[in-house]
Amino acid sequence: MIKRVTRARVLIMKQLQEDDTFATVQTVYNRLITKGRHVGIATVYRNLQIMAQDGELDSVRQHGEVFYRLCRDRHHHHHVVCRRCGRAVELEIPGLEQWVNSRAQSLGFSEITHSVEIFGLCAQCRALEEGEKRDSGQDDEERDSHRRYLSLEAYSAKAD
Q1: Adjacent-strand bridge partners of 119
Q2: Residue 113 region by backbone torsions, left for phi larger than 0, else alpha for psi between -120 and 50, else beta
Q3: Partners of 23 in the beta sheet?
Q4: pLDDT tens-digit readout, 106-153
Q5: pLDDT tens figures, 11-70
Q6: Bridge partners (DSSP) listed for residue 109
């Protein structure tokens, strides 16, 4: 079957090549619109689904949403995905494929497929979150310290 390469598919592919993160249909659509590349959201949705089915894109599910990324490696693999920024690292887990097949077959299953999706915070996002917590924590500490100071002043004034 010959695939028709449409203008929309080319624009979507270019956008995915510019990004190295997993993104939802809405995110890909928004990025295209921001750059003046007008493609309907239904067209983006349909093309991302087809491209994932054809093995051109990796896709992962999180919280009921599908995230897509240009597939750099066509063999079966897994990812560790940052749940904040979508950055992904391909992950090889030695022995996993054999273990999954062996275990599933021992339970009476055949035609085995699997998906392992690992989510966490990348080092950059973890540092950002720690900085945000530290900043907000300092503000709270300063506010609490100021309240204690005002309370002590009010207590001292009553004592005099």
Answers
A1: 81
A2: beta
A3: 68
A4: 999 999 888 787 889 999 999 998 888 777 765 555 545 444 444 444
A5: 999 999 998 788 999 999 999 999 999 999 999 999 999 999 888 898 888 888 899 988
A6: none
Backbone φ and ψ for 138, nearest 5 degrees, come out as: -65, -40
Looking at residue 119, its amino acid is F
Spatial CA neighbour of 65 closest among 16, 20, 119: 119
Find, among 5, 74, 8, the residue nearest to 41 by Cα: 8
User: 0.85 cut: is pTM over it?
Assistant: no
CA distance 121 to 137: 20
Identity at 68, one-letter amino acid code: Y
Q: How far apart are CA 79 and CA 18, in angstroms?
A: 19
Phi-psi region of 123 (alpha: psi -120 to 50; beta: other; left: phi over 0): alpha
Question: How many CB atoms lie under 10 A from the CB of residue 105?
Answer: 11
